[in-house]
Design a protein that fits this description.
single chain, alpha/beta, TIM Barrel, Rossmann fold, Immunoglobulin-like, 3 domains, six-stranded mixed sheet, 24 strands, 17% strand, globular
């Protein structure tokens, strides 16, 4: 476990065991359901384990609404993620301390936060992909570790909050099949793609909780999987925290997956395989399961002990002044410092995909009138993503531009069209605002066209209320009449800057071919419109990189239900991307030179890769130095991201950057999932993008290549 001695952990376990020994069976079982009631005779207050916080404290009133997780991933910045994790946990503490003072123990007000979501975004159709850190296991691992470290704090005795890695482990749609779907994944794909991020959060970050998924994984329901929970999580990785089910997932065992006869067998399967907490109420059948001999009471004791260790680690049973985090009060929620951090994060995620003839940044001194067009231009919902809190102030893209330009430049606005429907007004004709779009474009010097999606079009099953009711996307096309609106803007003859707000890849081919610039703004949070404006007008230099591949269509993809990685993501795709993973432009120009590797053959400690980076442009900026590794033998994946570092350089400045590649970075998994470094040639690529031809064409340069010769076969077996 991180930041805590084994001696202290044993003290917590001893205290938890002593408390559990005093409970009746019924009392123990009551504590294994997310709305755990008080046990007054033992001094145990009621506690609801369910809280959300993937990009800010969710569903509990006013909170800082950071950009959605997929957007934050675009910053490629582990240090930033740690700052955000600490901010989320600090606000959760402030809310918890306020609410318990008023005896409010309701849902979403506790310290056990069910975040981050570190599932691999393997298919752009998946509606919940915007909750994740993208398609790459290495990037997901690094960002997830940073977020968990921030959330859990660095006190040697207490957790700031308890983070939760979800959804363990092979889970990424389809949403409308999740309650009965069986995700089939080879051992190779499991250990090379689906498990590394979970392993990192458990073994490096000491994450306190793990949440199982709804679906089956290779035939076993994830929340009752012996393979996942017993053999891997607690066996190989020595996980000491607690496991929670996803909400009402246990009833799927007999209602959807049909692997048990009924609720008693379902709860027995879950608890016997190490699921300690039930989000839902089915664990009430555990009393019956114990009495029928399907679950040993000792097993119940172990689960309840693990749960109370978490509560002890959070300081819930210690004297008030002994727990340093008890001093966090509500003044830290939505504070000026939080709002400033939120703006900085929103600025960091902006990802520039096209900038023809350097049209961006715009110079407001040269503008008389700006058209702001599109259904996401003045949409608060398009700022948010799902599992969001309530911001005290929302700044839409339109408002951000109006605020920035003030009275100096006239801003003309048109909604353009409904986000996805045929028309905005029921009594109007189809696409009723197209003439207004043409009119405001004609008046303007430049057109900012704000398109995309919102969390009503992509999200979790059951949360949606429109044509995409399952939460998944049927295609990668812009919905409704958005392409018609964009074409009208282009046909005006005015320069068009497309701002796309979405949580996943869309087919932006028309924008790439016809717009002057394309900016991917993701779901940028409560301060998002202000950040967009500051990037468009040059107050901020964009630094985002794509954490997912932008494909041209779903026709390029394998079946959505196919969990094999063949043909998926930048690591295994064969066709050319529209916009590749790791790609993103800047307003300045970075040049890489004099790359070197410390050894010709990797030793047991791996190798160091060095490069000089020069900012040859006229602006200061931040670049993401990326290192990719390719095993040069048949049948191996494309070059894969294995190291990264964020650097800041003033105009004309240069620096020498060193990144370490552990031996594991050269390894690939065999059919049994064992990581092996095979002898032969390896190419190491270092630069500002991956080394594919499309990235080189878009960036105007390629990463630098280094060769490494491996003499011996080394078996690492990173499964343990």
């Amino acid at each position: 476990m991180m930041n805590i001695s084994q001696e202290k952990m044993e003290q917590y376990r001893s205290r938890a065991r002593a408390l559990v020994e005093q409970m009746t069976l019924e009392e123990k079982v009551s504590q294994m359901i997310n709305w755990a009631p008080a046990i007054s005779r033992l001094g145990i207050p009621a506690y609801n384990w369910w809280n959300e916080g993937i990009h800010g404290v969710g569903r509990a009133g006013t909170a800082t609404v950071f950009p959605q997780a997929i957007g934050m991933a675009a910053a490629f910045d582990e240090e930033m993620m740690e700052q955000v994790g600490r901010a989320v946990a600090t606000e959760a503490r402030g809310k918890y301390n306020l609410c318990r003072g008023h005896e409010d123990r309701d849902i979403y007000k506790g310290l056990t936060i069910w975040a981050p979501n570190i599932n691999i975004f393997r298919d752009p159709r998946w509606g919940r992909g915007h909750e994740t850190y993208g398609e790459d296991p290495y990037l997901t691992s690094r960002l997830g570790v940073g977020f968990v470290k921030g959330m859990q704090g660095d006190d040697p005795d207490y957790l700031l909050s308890a983070a939760c890695a979800k959804h363990f482990a092979v889970h990424s749609g389809p949403e409308d099949q999740r309650h009965y779907f069986n995700a089939v994944a080879s051992r190779q794909d499991m250990w090379e793609t689906y498990l590394p991020a979970f392993r990192a959060l458990v073994t490096e970050a000491g994450v306190e909780a793990v949440m199982g998924a709804y679906n089956r994984v290779n035939g076993e329901p994830a929340c009752g999987s012996k393979t996942l929970l017993v053999d891997i999580l607690r066996g190989k990785w020595k996980f000491q925290g607690h496991v929670t089910s996803d909400c009402w997932a246990i009833k799927d065992f007999h209602e959807g997956h049909m692997v048990t006869e009924g609720p008693v067998e379902s709860v027995a399967l879950a608890v016997n395989n190490g699921c300690d907490l039930n989000c839902g109420n089915l664990f009430s059948y555990l009393v019956q399961a114990v009495r029928e001999g399907k679950v040993a009471e000792k097993t119940i004791d172990e689960s309840v002990t693990r749960l109370f260790v978490t509560r002890f680690r959070l300081g819930m049973f210690d004297e008030e002044d002994k727990v340093p985090y008890n001093r966090i009060d509500y003044s830290q929620v939505d504070s000026p410092a939080m709002r400033q951090l939120n703006l900085r994060v929103a600025e960091k995620i902006m990802t520039l995909l096209k900038n023809e003839k350097g049209i961006l940044p715009l110079d407001k001194r040269k503008l008389r009138c700006v058209a702001v067009v599109g259904p996401n231009a003045n949409s608060r919902k398009a700022l948010l993503g799902n599992y969001e809190g309530t911001a005290s102030r929302y700044v839409t893209v339109l408002e951000g531009i109006q605020e920035y330009l003030g009275d100096d430049v006239l801003v003309r606005y048109s909604q353009g069209c409904h986000l996805y429907s045929d028309k905005i007004s029921n009594l109007a004709q189809s696409n009723e605002l197209l003439s207004e779009v043409r009119g405001v474009c004609a008046e303007s010097d430049v057109v900012i066209c704000c398109l995309g999606l919102d969390s009503g079009l992509e999200g979790e099953e059951g949360d949606q209320g429109n044509q995409f009711a399952s939460g998944d996307k049927p295609s990668l096309e812009l919905p409704g009449h958005q392409t018609d609106v964009l074409k009208a803007c282009v046909e005006s003859g005015k320069p068009v800057i497309v701002v796309c707000l979405s949580g996943s890849a869309l087919n932006l081919t028309y924008a790439q071919d016809h717009a002057a610039a394309v900016l991917q703004g993701w779901y940028p949070g409560g301060q998002g419109g202000r950040a967009v404006a500051r990037v468009l007008f040059g107050e901020v230099n964009p630094e985002g990189k794509l954490p997912v591949t932008f494909y041209r269509s779903t026709e390029e993809l394998p079946a959505f239900t196919d969990y094999s990685m063949k043909g998926r993501t930048y690591r295994y795709m064969e066709q050319e991307a529209l916009y590749p993973f790791g790609y993103g432009l800047s307003y300045t120009s970075f040049r890489f030179r004099d790359a070197s590797v410390s050894l010709e053959t990797a030793g047991t400690d791996g190798v160091d890769v060095c490069v000089t980076v020069c900012n040859e442009g006229s602006r200061s900026g931040r670049e993401t130095v990326q290192v990719y590794v390719k095993a040069e033998r048949p049948g191996t994946p494309n070059a894969q991201l294995k190291a990264l570092k964020k650097i800041s350089l003033e105009a004309g400045e240069q620096t020498r950057v060193s990144l370490h590649l552990p031996l594991e970075a050269l390894a690939l998994c065999d059919e049994e999932g064992v990581a092996v470094v095979e002898p032969g040639e390896y190419t190491l690529w270092i630069g500002a993008s991956q080394p594919d031809s499309r990235s080189a064409a878009l960036m105007g340069s390629s990463p630098l290549a280094l060769r490494l010769h491996q003499k011996e076969r080394v078996v690492l077996d990173t499964r343990a």
